[in-house]
Amino acid sequence: MRPTYRTIRLPALLLSAVAFAACGQGSSDGTASAAAQPRGEWDPTTVVLLPEEPPPRGASQFSTDFSRHVVPYREVFSGGVPKDGIPPLYSPGFASVDEADEWLEPTQPVLVVEVGDEAKAYPLQVLTRHEIANDVVGGVPLAVTYCPLCNTGIAFERTVDGEVVTFGVSGNLRNSNLIMWDSGTETWWQQATGQGIAGFYAGFQLTFYPVNLVAWSDFRASHPGGSVLTGPQGRRPGGYGINPYRFYDSAPEPFLYTGPETSRELYTMARVLTIDAGEEAVAYPYQVLEESRVANDDVAGNPVVVMWQPGANSVLDASIIADARDVGSAVAFSRRVDGRVLTFEWSGDSFRDKETGSTWNLLGEASSGSLQGSKLSPEIAINHLWFSWYAFRPETRIYRG
Q: Which CATH number does the domain 248-252+267-398 belong to among 1.20.58, 3.30.70, 2.120.10, 2.102.10?
């Protein structure tokens, strides 16, 4: 069904985030280290650069080599805020699941990151206000990021060329997508692709880490001993349930988008879960997944399963996130378990594999059957709004069921 479009005041979107920071709720609780001379083994001379051109407006806030860039600067636009005007979390605070349950509704969406035995949830109601949380999970330094204008929740390793860095919000956008900067060289990084686009590390690729976007109730049930992002360290999680991007995902067009024309194979603001395997890229529309619940597929020769279930709010809809419409959750895993390929189906109340009859939850855990206790290996799968995915990966296959 075609979405109903509603009028929104787009210029107010980012300004409301700045006001939130100014009142002290979201102010930066730490500062990144000053630009330093890069060290490591990476050879920047191997990158093919574009011809030198004047850097975009606002570049004077950064100390990096803007003669090095792999995207045209004409594609970079200010989002209306200065460097770290949307305050990233350099020292994030966390609560227990029981504590977080006092302020998170079951249907509110969270990004879930698991490293070894440690699992953490990053509520989108917090990340819409900060966009980046510099953290360590299971001993791995990670940046957990969310771009509200593209609905992209992505985790990256923070080790760049052998050094651990922190990431900040540049205030700039490309294809409406967040451009980050790092504390080591102040290189600009494209959040959607993880690529350095301007500065010393132009052309360098960050390492993605698996992340799932699910409802709070799913994380709470699977990880009762997990940790939950609350915002800046030492502050109570107040004021985060209000959506500064009211009705954004039902607008006819994205905010500040000047990229390539979007293919009309899907609605511009349609939600898709995406897998990029290099030689093949696939977009799984939520609208298709809602009908089948399960997609058994092969991407670049690798068997994958995409699961969808209702019960997660949009953070880009109603003013009160807990009152927003249900858009559901989609996740992706490898279908290989103990050397064999499984085929999944929706049984009416749970996910089940045909080969053993074992049942599985949305976080890839077998809850009954001969495979009880097994866990599926997560794929690097990223949520996008269709225009965002198409802008960065136009040569994509759309899963039709």
A: 2.102.10
